[in-house]
Amino acid sequence: MTVDTHTQTVGVIGWPVEHSLSPAMHNAALAAMELNWVYLAFPVAPERVSEAVGAVRGLQLIGLNVTIPHKQAVAELMDELDDAAEALGVVNTVVRREDRLVGYNTDGPGFLQSVEEMGHSVEGKRVAVIGAGGASRSIAYACARAGASQMTVLNRTAARAEAVASLAADKGGASDVGTAGLEGAAAEEAVSGADLVVDCTSVGMYPNVEEGPVVPGGWLRAGQVVVDVTYNPRETTLLRAARARGADVVDGTGMLVHQGAIALGHWCGRQAPAEVMREALLSALAR
Ligand code: ATR
């Protein structure tokens, strides 16, 4: 790749950002698409977020990805938001259109594509969403909008589960949403009765790879689809238990690839090469 006076810039802001896998995925895709763009990681301290967003206009950047802890602050600085970003108040992708900044949230759509590419769907399905942080909010909203027939949000801290359930009902339009803790009969019924179980917690994430599973493996069964948003390791304790019981498993790399591919599609107006991005992600993870 040659950087010259025509090279355009896109990147990710976060704090910290040096562990981001997005530069590896996106630069591989940009090369494959023969775009004279470069994707950089910008460490941006919280007090500098508005300056960083201003620089998208000032430097006429293509746009940005946004990661922790800036996703909410950036939503406040946009001229326009897509439906998910508006409903969640969270932006992971900024697209500059002339001097207007449009904020998108591609996490939920990325999740849906990661499930669909494995031959599964959400419409009409009973879904158990475990966890109540940022990933859970995006996924609960996306599943509600995709027509899940029933949803239970399970979380260690009840108040946070209630907040995600309200979001799925009020903003996502889900009509049948409940909550549960992580233990007891209600939790077991929600998980074992679900068609799709999604672990949105950090349980089992590197470096605590032996932690978990977040719910007993005995609650999982063949015929279910079990998704873990964790991508490092790819096989968490929950997915190991799910696989042992004959469930279909989906690891977190698919969501990461597709949220990125959808973002790149917004920036360049073309279909991004998801397979190239996946290959780059998997080699970066192997390192
Ligand atoms: P993110 O924004 O990445 O989704 P987060 O906001 O830190 O992450 O949320 C982490 C989720 O993992 C929360 O649902 C958290 O439960 P609480 O809301 O009760 O804190 C859950 N979590 C983290 N560690 C856990 C553990 N050891 N057992 C059960 N749940 C855990």
What topology does this entry show?
Elements: E1 8-14, H1 22-32, E2 37-43, H2 49-58, E3 63-66, H3 71-75, E4 80-81, H4 83-88, E5 93-97, E6 100-104, H5 107-116, E7 126-130, H6 134-145, E8 150-154, H7 158-170, E9 177-180, H8 185-192, E10 196-199, E11 225-228, H9 237-244, E12 248-250, H10 253-268, H11 274-286
Parallel strand pairs: 1-2, 1-3, 4-6, 7-8, 7-10, 8-9, 10-11, 11-12
Antiparallel strand pairs: 3-5, 5-6
Helix pairs in contact: 1-11, 5-6, 5-10, 6-7, 10-11
2'-monophosphoadenosine-5'-diphosphate binds at residues 131-136, 155-157, 160, 182, 200-203, 214.
Written description of the protein model:
- The chain is α/β, with parallel strands linked by helices and 287 residues long.
- It folds into 2 domains: 8-105 and 254-286, Leucine Dehydrogenase, chain A, domain 1 (Rossmann fold), CATH 3.40.50.10860; 109-251, NAD(P)-binding Rossmann-like Domain (Rossmann fold).
- Helix content is 39%, strand content 19%.
- The protein has 11 helices and 12 strands.
- The strands form 2 sheets. The chain has a 6-stranded mixed beta sheet with strand order 2-1-3-5-6-4, sandwiched between helices. A 6-stranded parallel beta sheet has the order 9-8-7-10-11-12, with helices on both faces.
- Helix 9 links the parallel strand 11 and strand 12.
- The longest helix is centred in the last third of the chain and has 16 residues, at 253-268.
- The chain is globular and about 60 Å long.
- It starts with 7 loop residues before the first strand and ends with a helix.
- 2'-monophosphoadenosine-5'-diphosphate is lined by residues 131-136, 155-157, 160, 182, 200-203, 214.
